[in-house]
Request: fold
Amino acid sequence: FFYSPICCRRRMIDRTNFSVQPYTLSTPEMDFDKLVNKKVIGLNAKGLHDGDLDVLTKVLQKSKVLEKLSLWGNQITLADGKFANALANNCTLRVLSLGTNKIDAEGA
Reply:
């Protein structure tokens, strides 16, 4: 039996009982009414998956002011095409950052 605590941002994590839980965005971060009025949305390194993009897809469809969307460093694949379709019809977005995600040929 090996026990090794890891200090991570002033919290102790027990390696013997450690599991990674999917990140779930809190309501304030993904509030459509707030996001649709923002010029810049940054959700970098939040562990987002395609299922987390529903609100952002709606924002892309409805926003008249969004200029920059940064989703760098997540687990996004864009495999279902919904986000890409909303993106294709958005006229205000100037900068999209999707680096270091899991987008392959199917999602591109």
User: Anything to note?
Assistant: Residues 34 and 75 are 24 Å apart (CA to CA).
